[in-house]
């Protein structure tokens, strides 16, 4: 499985997980409102005279507070959905070196980084465990000797590579951590779209 397919699945899982968490939050928010509504109705039935206006105002405040609490439940669920999906993605990409296809993934990340950097001479900053892969990549890259070398700078990463110009002045970070960080905004956007498609925050109905 390529890194692109892994990322696509992570984004797909983000949608599924967000829907599950937000559905649960909607149910919890509805329970908060329903409980407050029943309590307000109970108090309303106890109103006998105009002197009980204080009780009536308390009922109104109770319902208002319950809606605020319900919206808070839903907003927290949105944040939890993002955090849980991101944590799951981080755990999966953290084990990418164990993937049988990792050599292919490393090659694609290195090649992509070189293309994006757009320089004639490049250095590969890699984790020590990936040095053999980097050496193999350079042999197969087909460039002139010296155009692509392994940097003396190492990077502590779960996978991937940082491609830099000579001396590390310009860099393209194509480690799995950097790619995941770039995905975080899209994960958050997907969760937000699910939230808004359900009509906004809970408690406003």
Please, could you describe this protein's structure?
There is one protein chain. The protein has 205 residues and is α+β, with helices and mostly antiparallel strands. The protein is built from five helices and four strands, in the order αααβαβββα. It has two domains: 3-96 and 180-197; 101-178, ATP synthase, E subunit, C-terminal (hypothetical protein PF0899 fold), CATH 3.30.2320. The protein has a four-stranded mixed beta sheet. α1 (3-45) packs antiparallel against α2 (53-93) and α3 (102-117) crosses α4 (131-141). The model has no long low-confidence stretch (mean pLDDT 77).
What is the molecular shape? rod-shaped
Helix content: 55-70%
The count of DSSP E runs of length 2 or more, i.e. the number of strands, is: 4
> What is the strand arrangement across the widest sheet?
2-1-3-4
- What profile does the largest beta sheet have? 4 strands, mixed
Low-confidence stretches: none
Question: Span from first to last CA?
Answer: 44 Å
Return the average pLDDT rounded to an integer: 77
Tally of discrete structural domains: 2
Summarize the helix and strand pattern as letters.
HHHEHEEEH
As a percent range, the share of strand residues is: 5-15%
Number of helices: 5
Radius of gyration, CA atoms, in whole angstroms? 27 Å
In terms of topology, how is this protein built?
Blueprint: H1 3-45, H2 53-93, H3 102-117, E1 122-125, H4 131-141, E2 148-150, E3 160-164, E4 171-175, H5 176-197
Parallel strand pairs: 1-2
Antiparallel strand pairs: 1-3, 3-4
């Amino acid at each position: 499985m390529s890194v692109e397919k892994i990322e696509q699945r992570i984004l797909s899982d983000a949608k599924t997980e967000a829907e599950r968490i937000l559905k649960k939050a909607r149910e919890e928010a509805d329970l908060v409102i329903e409980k407050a509504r029943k309590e307000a109705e109970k108090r309303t039935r106890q109103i006998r005279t105009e002197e009980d206006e204080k009780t009536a105002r308390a009922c109104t405040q109770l319902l208002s507070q319950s809606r605020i609490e319900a919206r808070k439940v839903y907003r927290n669920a949105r944040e939890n959905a993002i955090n849980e999906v991101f944590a799951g993605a981080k755990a999966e990409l953290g084990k990418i070196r164990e993937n049988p296809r990792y050599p292919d993934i490393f090659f694609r990340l290195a090649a992509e980084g070189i293309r994006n950097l757009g320089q004639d001479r490049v250095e590969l900053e890699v984790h020590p465990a990936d040095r053999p892969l980097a050496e193999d990549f350079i042999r197969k890259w087909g460039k002139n000797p010296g155009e692509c070398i392994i940097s003396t700078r190492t990077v502590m990463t779960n996978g991937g590579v940082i491609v830099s110009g000579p001396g590390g002045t310009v860099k393209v970070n194509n480690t799995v951590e950097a790619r995941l960080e770039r995905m975080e905004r899209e994960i958050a956007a997907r969760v937000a779209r699910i939230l808004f498609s359900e009509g906004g925050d809970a408690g406003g109905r």
